[in-house]
Amino acid sequence: MVGTVTSMTTLRLQPFLIFGHRGASAHATENSLAAFRLAAEQGADGVELDVRRTADDALVVHHDPTIAGVGPIIDRTLEELRRAAPGLVTFPEAMAACDGLIVNIEIKNSPVDPDFDPDDTVADTVTRWVVENGWRDRVIISSFNPVTVDRVRALDDGCATGQLIDPGADAAGQLEIAHQRGHRALHPHFSSLTDAPQLVTTAQELGIWLLVWTVDAHRDIRALQEAGLTGVITNDPAGARAAIA
To answer: Which is it for strands 71-72 and 66-67: parallel, antiparallel or unpaired?
Structure first.
């Protein structure tokens, strides 16, 4: 089954959305072309993927700042990484594999990581690529780093932006902040939903989408659907689709 959502315009019409966390990562290697394609086959409306930069400023899709047996991504050029880790996917390659889906592009930019990007060059490059390649209406660009999300918003207010928050963070307070900063979505961890009905009411009043990570248990997915949240980011799109069928 292939997801039916193809743009942020139709996103507003959907009752509940399923995003594959790094693709269908319960069934295929995370952040791989196979995982992205499988997410679509399993009925996902979209996928979430992670973007980092190489030593020569190429964009690659990988969750951690280092690759096992290789070292920090930022210390190697794309050509060197391709030789050492042939399965590593570039950002354009990943986006091509996700054609027909909404893509939640998470820009990794933590001050404690070796590839910390204080100048937000990754945000600049991602935003420019999205605009130039006609993806503006099919992405949410997000980050845990609020400065990075603000940078995307400042570069192009036509791109939907989403603020990721840590497990246990005050989702209600962060919802207000996201609204004040002009972001379209908040991505709370499941543990932050201490009062989901009230959070949903406030989000609807502010016009903000709530996409919750990372939820795999069928009972939790059904509860979030019944509470009226926008959707979930899950490792198992097929399971999530079955849970709400």
So the answer is: antiparallel
